[in-house]
Amino acid sequence: MSVTKLTIRAAVVGALLTAPIAAVAGNAAAAGHNWDAVAQCESGGNWATNTGNGYYGGLQFSPGTWAANGGSGMPHQASREQQIAIAERVLARQGIGAWPSCGGRLYS
Fold first, then answer.
1. Which CATH number is 100's domain given?
2. Which of 20, 30, 35, 89 sits between 20 and 30 A of 3, alpha carbons compared?
3. Are residues 15 and 39 in the same domain?
4. For each of the chain's 108 residues, which pLDDT tens digit applies?
5. The dihedral of CA 100, 104, 105, 106: what is its sign?
């Protein structure tokens, strides 16, 4: 096998191996958005909170918003990463106004 073919194969294999790692890291960073700051404001940073006010989880989702954006089950029972993934969808559809009191912290 030629050096060129080996180099190409190595590049492809490297890309395939690092893609899942990048995807996981991307969820945590979520496009540079500071979801931890929003959660701190919304729920005291408690990703599993159920305060009885009709909103759930660290980012205080209503069940309707959660389901409409691909969430299953209840938001407060989902992982931090799952909540962030749904929050990114909500942000894309509704903008920062979905978190009227705390959304500004997203960019802190």
1. 1.10.530.10
2. 20
3. no
4. 665 554 456 554 454 444 444 444 444 445 799 999 999 999 999 999 999 999 999 999 999 999 999 999 999 999 999 999 999 999 999 999 999 999 999 999
5. positive
